[in-house]
Amino acid sequence: MPTTSQYDAQGRLRHLLTLQDMPRDTLTALLDRAQHFAEGHDARHVLAGTAICTLFFEPSTRTRLSFQRAAQRLGADVLAFDASTSSTTKGETALDTLKNIEAMGVRGFVIRHKDDGAVAELAAAANPGTALLNAGDGRSAHPTQGLLDMLTLRQAKGADFSTLKIAIIGDIKHSRVARSDLHALRVLGATHIRACGPASLLPDDGTLDGCHVTHDFDEALDGADVVMMLRLQRERMEQGLVSSLEDYHRDYGLSVQRLKRATADAVVMHPGPMNRGVEIDDAVADGSQSLILKQVNNGVAARMAVLEALLG
Amino acid sequence: MPTTSQYDAQGRLRHLLTLQDMPRDTLTALLDRAQHFAEGHDARHVLAGTAICTLFFEPSTRTRLSFQRAAQRLGADVLAFDASTSSTTKGETALDTLKNIEAMGVRGFVIRHKDDGAVAELAAAANPGTALLNAGDGRSAHPTQGLLDMLTLRQAKGADFSTLKIAIIGDIKHSRVARSDLHALRVLGATHIRACGPASLLPDDGTLDGCHVTHDFDEALDGADVVMMLRLQRERMEQGLVSSLEDYHRDYGLSVQRLKRATADAVVMHPGPMNRGVEIDDAVADGSQSLILKQVNNGVAARMAVLEALLG
Amino acid sequence: MPTTSQYDAQGRLRHLLTLQDMPRDTLTALLDRAQHFAEGHDARHVLAGTAICTLFFEPSTRTRLSFQRAAQRLGADVLAFDASTSSTTKGETALDTLKNIEAMGVRGFVIRHKDDGAVAELAAAANPGTALLNAGDGRSAHPTQGLLDMLTLRQAKGADFSTLKIAIIGDIKHSRVARSDLHALRVLGATHIRACGPASLLPDDGTLDGCHVTHDFDEALDGADVVMMLRLQRERMEQGLVSSLEDYHRDYGLSVQRLKRATADAVVMHPGPMNRGVEIDDAVADGSQSLILKQVNNGVAARMAVLEALLG
């Protein structure tokens, strides 16, 4: 992975590639601005006349729509390029695609790619005035998801994360969401983080350094203030990493009963889309402790804050 | 099908699910406003800043474009979600998809779904400030098509439908267009409605109550003022409901010769897309009595009227 | 091919179908205006409220995005219809599709089609107020590519083309880009045009009248001021027109070494997308003599000029 910094010489954010080791002030400023937008304020002048392209080498309709809505509320012009289905780019490199659309006068790129570090690699080749937003690269990072999760958590539990007991449950190994959440939680001072899942789905690459790691869901939930559930990709079964959806649900599915182990005012989060009946039960997903739709709502605001910071 | 009312406690339209039993004043007010928009007036302030999503679980490019153009002329921001091809929503319910996009701040949804009642079911779960527009559900209803057909008819024949002889020809059984047209015609006082097609393509579920039903195309056309042709889906042959396209054309295809049975100033309508040479001949489709492109033109205006009524 | 003129009775451009035999004043005026837009000027009032549809019967994401960006900078509303994937138009003719979208109030159409003359055929059936832009039809023409290439050439080499030695290299036979470049070069007074490629890829239909034709790449490059490379479609191998990519690269691939045969300040152009390592080497494509990204940049400006001329 190239070592392109996402900051300029003055320490200002130039791209958003990761939340890892982001200066706390920078992260907090983004959250403050996101909170402003979450309160319903539009700012159509901020990016009026500015072109933004959603450049998805891996499809994701929901993330794309969230970015598109954010761009609209800032007055930007949006172009969409679904590189996962485009036949015209056969044989063309991701870099040539980027440079071409950049040459059309597009200043901001929202990029998803299946490879770790792919967005950073593209950022290294972008023109000085161009900003790239990582909308998910491989297992590495999904920084706007991390931001929206922190915004949601701060709204629910206040800005002091130091005493919160936070449980992250499921397929952490393959999850860029989990990684960006962990990056952000550390920057914001969280210290009681529990990571839980079957051994086959927990990473051993340093991702969980400083976390309490367990395979026992009940232990992870015990007295937790925040329960962050992760989506179980069905391909994990085909890969032999999970024996069956039924077994997974029995061991790591969040039911109303199980949630009672957490604190009475514990909140439940999930990045979506949910596999209802697998990692989460309907009664929890739609229950009073669920923040899942609030997360989606905050996603637009968080993305507005990033777009404004990079391009405004 | 849930019994969600499309009206609020004050009787105002909250969603548009069907034209069935719509109060005549409500329907007429929509047509009056549609006429205003059909005269070329835009109203970009009406929905400025409002987000509308076209959420199509069954593809239909033309209906989607018509709604998109309507939304543009009202100044709305449009998001498009082709749920029929999205791989990201695999395993996600239509309801979760709706609730997620709603959580992004989208206030209006234009929804097409293959199942009868699917849009009403989603409407029952929408937030108070959210409006759903049925852009076609199963065989049940396609209310904006009904509206645009009534607008077109009113422009051609005046507002008094009581004396008009109206023939509806073809696959009424599987047609949401025919049902919405019948709903609207009844509300507006039409009494001379003839329904015609092969027995295999006529419904026996009450849809045709009060209509004169015949399998004889010549009889249906005799002295008719309005001839509404329906599209013959090719799958009806595979299902054995029609023996061949040639037979269908011989029995129920509208030719110049056949049209002479109607009044000299009879008008011909078709919801499109046409199977030229099957249910309608080129010379009729493109002839002076055809209102087919006028229908398409009025479609944008009718959809503007509905969007304004629900979201303005 | 119908003989629909692209000019009205007063000689003003009504459609843009081809650059062939375009009056030099008309072409120069488009280039002058494109130059204005290339300098960064937007003109959001010019097409405010005007609807433009990109109607692609053959997919091309990059050309579509370029037109979309051009339309945005002129303030137009854009509708996109990918007719190559739409299932709703099965069995519908291109003409019915056009007439329907036209009936929705769309005034401008950007059309790509695989058949020679298809856009001219549609133009013959368009309403008086409707303008069609050929975004590529068969092997015939791709006039906005011709315009952007002329704009790029004029910026690099000045407006007098009469003394320029211009080499066009590769699959000219199947190239609408080459044809539109040749049309425009002749109108603008270029006289030293060399056409080079294997015999199987050179046309014998009059396209190259007046050009110096050779199969020897070195001869074509010798002292050239401008080198226009063409994309080699991989299907040419399957068709047996080219023996292998390796052979093609050896005979007609532009390397740094080979480029030295041209003048020291020769410029290199390519319409994209490139097959790197086949018709062009990385070091040339990304080198200081390459105008390839400048072409893309000028594409938006050239398309703005055409949209303004036809619809403004």
Structure description:
The structure is a homotrimer of 312-residue chains. Chain A has 312 residues and is α/β, with parallel strands linked by helices. Chain A folds into 2 domains: 24-141 and 298-311, 3-Layer(aba) Sandwich (Rossmann fold); 144-295, Aspartate/ornithine carbamoyltransferase (Rossmann fold, 3-Layer(aba) Sandwich). The first copy, chain A, has 12 helices and 9 strands. Chain A has helices at 24-38, 61-73, 94-103, 118-123, 143-157, 176-187, 217-221, 235-238, 245-252, 256-259, 282-285, 292-311, and strands at 51-56, 77-82, 108-113, 131-137, 165-169, 192-196, 212-214, 226-229, 267-269. A 5-stranded parallel beta sheet of chain A has the order 7-6-5-8-9. Chain A has a 4-stranded parallel beta sheet with strand order 2-1-3-4, with helices on both faces. In chain A, strand 1, helix 2 (61-73) and strand 2 (77-82) form a beta-alpha-beta unit. In chain A, helix 2 crosses helix 12 and helix 5 (143-157) packs across helix 6 (176-187). The first copy, chain A, is globular and about 55 Å long. The model of chain A has no long low-confidence stretch (mean pLDDT 95). Chain A binds chain C through residues 49, 51, 53, 77, 79, 81, 86-89, 91-93, 96, 99-101, 103-106, and chain C through 42, 44, 59-62, 65-66, 68-69, 72-73, 234, 272-276, 293-294, 296-297, 299-300.
